[in-house]
Amino acid sequence: KAGVTQTPRYLIKTRGQQVTLSCSPISGHRSVSWYQQTPGQGLQFLFEYFSETQRNKGNFPGRFSGRQFSNSRSEMNVSTLELGDSALYLCASSLTSGDSYNEQFFGPGTRLTVL
Amino acid sequence: DQQVKQNSPSLSVQEGRISILNCDYTNSMFDYFLWYKKYPAEGPTFLISISSIKDKNEDGRFTVFLNKSAKHLSLHIVPSQPGDSAVYFCAARARDSNYQLIWGAGTKLIIKP
Question: Hey, of B31, B38, B101, B108, which one would you mutate to test binding to chain A, going by the most A CBs within 10 A of its CB?
Answer without folding.
Answer: B101
